[in-house]
Structures are given as structure tokens and as C-alpha cells.
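>> received
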Amino acid sequence: MIEIPEPLKPVVTFAHPVLMWILFALTLYAMYLGIQTRRLRSLSGEEKKALIQSKVNIKHHQVGAILLALMVMGTIGGMAVTYINNGKLFVGPHLIVGLGMTALIAISASLTPFMQKGSEAARALHMTLNLFLVILFGWQAVTGLQIVQRILNAS
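>> returned
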């Protein structure tokens, strides 16, 4: 069995919750950028020029790519640390929803080529999946804090 060196245990144990809270905030920012990108399609004049100059669409793509990579790594990392610390995974709502969220963000990102070709169905699905992702992320944040509290109480 793999053992985490004692001085690194707190860092490794709490890396997943800290990363996920950062990703939750980044997800909200990506949603804001996505809404601004969507608005860009219906605007005209100075307001449209200002949004184009602020490059919200490019920022949305970049933040989305970072989110995808870090969410996948954070999910796998959280599972790995749980297994290393406990010799097993705790299969419950937090784990199942986290895996579902990882699938949602991957599916959402995979719609990009279709949206770039103008598919309104892909855009609608992308927005729906991401809205659901934000809602689940909020729930995960609360249940994650409960898990952290149990870990702290057990120490």
C-alpha cells in the first residue's frame, strides 16, 4: 500500500477541496463569459464592439479548457488520495455526482466544434449541461465541506 509522508498528508488531503472551490469560482466566471459571448450574437453598435474588444469568446474558450483539464485531474486526484488514505473509495453521492460532473464537462466541451459550425441545438445543449453542472457544483461544495469537517473532527 502507498503511504503519503506525514508532513505532506495535510497538503495532499486538502488539495482536492481547495482546488474544487477554486474551480467552482472559475466555473461561475466561465458562465459569465459564456453569457457575454451569447449576448454578443444579438448586440450591435458600440456595445458589440466593446464586447468583441474584450475578447469574451476567446476567454470563454480558454477558461473552459482550463476547467476541463483541472476538473478531470481534480476528480482523479481526489479519488486517488481517498484511496491512498483509506484503502478504499467511499461510494456515495459525493463521488457519484463528482464523476457525473466530470462527464458533463467533457460532453459540454465536445460540443464546441458543432457550435462553431452554427448548431443552435449544440449551443442549447451546451448551456443546459453547464447550468446543470453549476447547480451540481454548488451541491458538491456543500457536501465537500461536510466531508472536510468529518476529516478535521477525526484528526
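>> The chain has six helices and no strands.
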